[in-house]
Each structure stands twice: as structure tokens, then as C-alpha cells.
Amino acid sequence: MKIAKDKTMATLIALFLVLTITVTLVALPATNAQSTKATYAYIGATPNPIGVGQQTLIDFGITDLIGPNASAGWTGLTVTVTRPDNTTETLGPFRTDSTGGTGTVYVPSMVGTYYLQTNFPQQEYLNITRLASTSEKLALIVQQEPVAFYPGVPLPTEYWTRPIDAQIREWYSIAGSWLTTPDNLFAPYNDGPESAHILWAKPLTLGGEVGGELGLVGSGPTSVGMETGDAYEGKWSTRLILMGRLYYIDGAYDRPRLIHCVDLHTGEELWAKTFLDNQTIAFGQLFYWESYNVMGTYAYLWVTVGTTWTAFDAFTGEWRATITDVPSGTNIFGPRGEVYRYTVSLTGGYMHLWSLSAFVSMEGSFGSAFSLRQYNASSGTYRSLLGNGTLGSETTTGAADRAKRAWAWNITIPKGLPGSVRAVNHTDRVVGASINTTDVVVWAFSLKKGQEGTLLFNKDWKAPAAWAAGNQTIEWMTSSLIDGQKVGVLFLKETCQNYGFSLETGEYLWGPTTPPQYYLDALEDTKAGARVIAYGKLYSASVGGIVYCYNVTTGKLLWTYEAVDPYTEILWANNWWMRPLFITDGKIYVGHYEHSANEPLPRGGPFICLNATTGEVIWRADGLFRQTRWGGRAIIGDSIIATMDTYDQRVYAIGKGPSATTVSIQNDITTLGSSVMIKGTVTDISPGTKEYALTLRFPNGVPAVSDESMSDWMLYVYKQFPRPANATGVEVTLDTVDPNGNWIHIGTVTSDSSGMFKLAFTPEVPGEYTIIATFAGSESYWSSYAETAIGVGEAPPAPAEPIAAAPLPPFDLYIIGATIAIIAAVAIVGLMILRKKP
Length: 838
Description:
Blueprint: H1 9-23, E1 36-37, E2 41-46, E3 50-51, E4 56-62, E5 77-82, E6 88-94, E7 101-106, E8 112-120, E9 123-125, E10 128-130, E11 133-134, E12 138-143, E13 198-203, E14 239-242, E15 245-249, E16 259-263, E17 269-273, E18 283-290, E19 295-305, E20 308-313, E21 319-324, E22 330-333, E23 339-345, E24 350-355, E25 360-363, E26 369-372, E27 374-376, E28 382-385, E29 391-394, H2 399-405, E30 407-412, E31 420-425, E32 429-435, E33 439-446, E34 455-462, H3 465-469, E35 474-480, E36 487-492, E37 497-502, E38 508-510, E39 531-534, E40 537-540, E41 546-551, E42 557-562, E43 578-584, E44 587-592, E45 606-611, E46 617-622, E47 635-637, E48 640-645, E49 650-654, E50 659-664, E51 669-671, E52 676-684, H4 692-697, E53 702-703, H5 710-719, E54 731-737, E55 743-750, E56 756-761, E57 767-775, E58 784-793, H6 810-836
Parallel strand pairs: 1-10, 3-12, 21-27, 51-58
Antiparallel strand pairs: 2-4, 4-7, 5-6, 5-8, 8-11, 8-12, 9-10, 13-49, 14-15, 15-16, 16-17, 18-19, 19-20, 20-21, 22-23, 23-24, 24-30, 25-26, 27-28, 28-29, 31-32, 32-33, 33-34, 35-36, 36-37, 37-38, 39-40, 40-41, 41-42, 43-44, 44-45, 45-46, 47-48, 48-49, 50-52, 52-53, 52-56, 54-55, 54-57, 57-58
């Protein structure tokens, strides 16, 4: 269906409904042949009524099909719109699809009643003249109040996993994949973790400290660890993330390569297989296909061996298709996940672009099923599964056409362009350069539709005389073809300075950058990835251990960060050798690796997250995730970092984890005026904390701690370092709902490093209370809460005051006094008699 392009949510929903309705009309019987035929135009609008300034989808056409060719359509249709002020406008002309219908979006600008009418002009098709017709007028009611559309779903506030329900469209922004190493290590569509919190850890192979008699070998003597794959084994070099699943290989070279598929959120291993004859995954693919009856995304893992490509199902790891005779070239990915392969011949003056998606077969009428078959790319022939499940061979009638269509285009380009291709954007341009000590030549030719092969520029910039005089080494480091930052960057090894050239015009922009980068940066022999471009900035990090951030269009130094080594573990510098890992969500992540580290490994290798705009440290973990040079470094998908650590040869997932809050009151029945002690815990319940090794050490659960304490706390929890003495807990809010239904804030407390919190509370009225303990969450944990209750009885009655004795009258006092005197006299006489006895 041909429609005006508009990507708002309301329009997409409406268009889907219209497509569903109109496509079903294909099954209607064809009209009997005749010289003329009356037509019946129609028109509708959804929604109706609509709010002023909102979009409504106009569905219009005639009831006649124009099959059997699915690409055919009626032409010249218009829609007359009469506004509430009696002014008119004409929309169109439009072309329908084969169902006879089409649609367009209309936005009314005033309140009142609009009238819409379809106009179908007379036209002939297959010797039958369709007569002109107009539809009934449609009243479109436009009101001041906006019409409610389906509400969006906010981003998650709790721990989340895959699958994400297809209705929760907004979460695309935090659910990116890592299908192959992205240009400039830029990985959008993630919420970059802002703490070192670990979700889970899994062993890749035997790793870490060996112990025993090997504690006495090496220089020192000192203890040694297992080999890490540097150099040159390259462990974990194959790793990617596809829709929340982490795929990685635990072997290298001639060892069995077992491909593991792990749930990135939970650490659960879903399957482990060896592909073909011990092959690795070249890249992942999420391919969105849209046809008349089939729309959706298909997920594949591709193994490429020479000119043979094999697709495996990303869900099961099972074989899906094999394509042979794939042409040589370099891969690029289209906006829908299409895989293109381009070849540029500067001497021959041509460029080829081959499309993998041409080998998708649509089965049945109008593509009622999707199939990626087993093709020969050069001939277009394929083998398919027969009804009994065995492979049979057949050749399609259009096999040659299919093979031909696979070549998206073959264009002529200017011959003799110097140097080599440096960057390609298959919808914009190809950029190349030739670099030596006297000249920098930058050129580009267009790939825009209708301009393919047109030379955009070919600029020769004369280098400073010092380049040739000093016999300097100049290298193309990185480039970007994103609008606003179309820049190529050169690096002078001997002076450690950068130069920038416009890839929009080919002109010299800036350089040399001052001051020069630290001299050790000249020793970096793997240039790819040492400098990356994102957010209009150039980031550089290398052997010198300093992260530099420049304005990519001016070369101005914006900030630096030094990855200082506080304990002099690095023997050649005061900083750790650092390398950019990836950039996402306004953050740049950098980590330590080394060419071929001595044993024992230097301790405390940092993993750092920096604000990409200011250079401010968001978090730093020393000794937690040491990177590998020859293997795979950290990647990110679904807002979770996956990395291998060379200190213990484990795979770690880093991200925000779930928490659990408890609350209790021991004496939950009390009396008014008495205080009660509210107490509870906040614990980390991430998947890794359920491992037996941790439940043995933390039988009461792993305490949740503050973001500031997280890096050292993770060393303690997952790597058995000493328990941090200064770890602090998390903030807990205590509230109550009193017997009268009033919400009362009791107080805010901070848990300790054992996870416990407490606070005394004195109820003010009798009755039943609900006590709520809430941990609002942090950068390390999602929120959690718990409730308990107390009953408060009336206070017991106060004890009665004692009754005072009434005062005696004077007569009584006299009698009592006389009596006492008589008793005293008798006692004295008795005493005298006793003394007279011999």
C-alpha cells in the first residue's frame, strides 16, 4: 500500500489496520471482462472524531481490484477536503495498490466539521474502461480536545528480562544488540551501567592463581596464574549479543570451539554447540522483512568460510540455510539489518554492491511465508526441504533473475583515485585517501540514489615540510560519516599528534593537536579502536594511559583523564595502558589491557566509566575486569555489559540488579505509649548471588551496598578480596499507614554493610498500623519494598491513688501519748529491779 510517510505511533497503528483490511480483498474474484465498468469510490478516516492538530488516517480508493499483478495500482486519485470555513484543498494525486485502495495522513488545523470526498478518474486496464466516480462526502469531526491514543509504556523501574512484549514499543531505546563490532565502538540503544555491580559470573576456562609449588616459580620468586590467551590465542574473541542473548566461544585455534548461548539477564546457559567443522560466528543478523503479507524480524547467526555462508537459527542454534559462491568484498549493514557486500576497484573504475536479502524466498501468493533457502549466489539456484524432510534439488524459473537482482547495483566510478577506501556509507558516499609525508589526498564519490559514482571531491593537501624532513609515520586512525561529524583523523606517530580532515568536502580542518599526546602512545601498534568518534568528539586512549577528548570538527582539546596506577604495578609508566571499549548513553568505557603481560599479572587493572561530555569519573573498578588484547573486550547489549576478565578467566555481566527488602517488628502487639523497633534488611538477589559458592559465604544473602562502595564490594563478593571496612549500605524509607488511613513518614535510615537497618517508632493512636519499608533503588539495584503490621492497644488504666489516713482528734492524741508514757515508765522500773539482783 502506498502511503505518505509518517512515523508517529498513532499513524503506524492505523496503517497496520488498513493494511490488514485491504490485503484481505486480494482473495475476491476477478471481474468478468467488459468494455466499460462502473466504479464505486469510498473514503474513511480513522480516528473520527479527531482533535485539532492531531493525525487522522484517510483510507480511500475504489472497490475494484487491479490484480493479478501485486505491484499494479489505479492512478490519479485525489481527495477533496472542504474545511469548516468553506475553503477547499485537494490531496494527491495518489496511486493505489493492487487492492484498489491506499491511504494518507491528514492533520486538521481548525475545530469544526470537515468534508472529504474521493475522486477516481476514468482509466483503462486490461481492455476494460473503469468509469470515473466520486465517493459520498465523509464528515470528519474535529474537536478542541485531543483524542486519546494508546498510552506509551514507561521505561522499566524493576528488574526486566527478555522477551519484551511487542506492545512495549518504548523499550527499544534500552534494548540494543551487538551483532558485530560497531563503527567507532558506538553502541546506542543502551542505558549504560553507572556502577560496577555484577549480575552473574561464569567460568570461561581454568583461570586465576595456580598455587602450590608454582607459587615459587618466576622472578621473585612469586606466584603465577593460568595463561590468559594474550598473546596470541585470543580467548573470547567471538562474542556478540542478540536480543538479550550472549553468544561466545570458549576455545581458540585448533581447540574445539563450543559456542555458548547464555541469557544475558540471568546467566542461564540455553545451549552450547559446535558449528560445522569447528567454525566461529562471523556476525549476527536481525533482518526486518516487509512484504504484502509478511512483516517481522528474523534472527540469524552467520558462519562464513571463504565464499560459503551458513545461517543458524539464533534461538536454537540449528542450521537454516547455506549460500555458496558469495562474492568477495566488505560487509555493510542496511537500516533494516540487510547485509550488503561491496567491492571497489579504483583501477578498474567500478563499484559493486551485492545484497544478501535477494536470496530470501517468499513462498506462496504474495509472500505468505518467509524462507531463507540454500542458494548458489552466482546462479540463483537453490535446494529446499522436500515434504519428507530430506534435501531435494530444484531450480526456480527465475533463478537467473534472482542472481541478477542480488547485485543491487554495479556503478562506474572515476578511475585512478589514489590510495584506498577508508569509509563507506552505502546511502551517502565512499571516502578514500592516500597519505604520505608530502601529500594527503582525500576523495569521495556519491552513493545517493540517482548520483551513484559521481565524484564529490578529490582534494590534495600539501603536508608540512617537517613530515618529510623527519621521515614521520602518518596513519589514518578513524573516521565518521555521520552528519555533523564527517571527519577523518590522522595520527603522527613520532610527535603523537592528530590531524582532522573534512569528509564532507575533503578540506583540511585542524592539526596538529596541542599539546602532543603522551609519548608512549606512539608504541600502540593496533590502531583500530584506539581513537573513536561519537557525539561530535574524538576520543583517544592508548599506551600512555591518558584519555583525551577533542572537538572533532575543531581539534580543540576538551578534557583529559589519567588512569593513574597508585601502586606502580605498571613498570614503564605512572598510568595504566588503556583502550576505549565502547561508547553509549553519553558515557565512554575504557579498560586496561597489555600486549603480552608478564606473570604475575600487574594487579589492580582498572575498568572505568567516564562522562563522555565532561570526563568526570562515573565509576572505576580496579582489579575487577582486566581486558584482553588478542581476545574479545567488553561489549554491551540490553543495557548490560558482558566482559571476560583475564585475572580469573570468567565471563561477567555488569548491570543493575534486583534487590529484596524485608521488614519486621518482633513484638507486633503493643500498647499505646510504647515504642517498637522496626528492623529489616536489603539484599542483592542478582542471579550470581544464587550460586552455591556465594550462598555458602552469605547464608543470609548478599547485602546491598551503596554505589560508592560497589567496586570494592564486588571484589569482595565475587573475587574473595578482604571485606571492605568502609562499605556503606543503602537508604531505606520507613512509612506507616495509621488506623485512620493517614500516610505518615516515620523516618529514613541507611542499612549497614550486613544489609540490616533499624529504627524505633512510637505509635500515637491505638489500632492497626501498616509499616512500609522502601528501598528506592540506585544505579546498582532496582527498587524493592516490604510491609509488616503492628497492633496498638489502649493503654491500661492508671493505678488508683492511695487513700491518706484521716487526722486524729486531739483527745485521741492525748490518750495515745499517755499510753506511750505509761509503757515507757513500766519499762524503766523493770530495768532498775533487774539491776538490783545479786
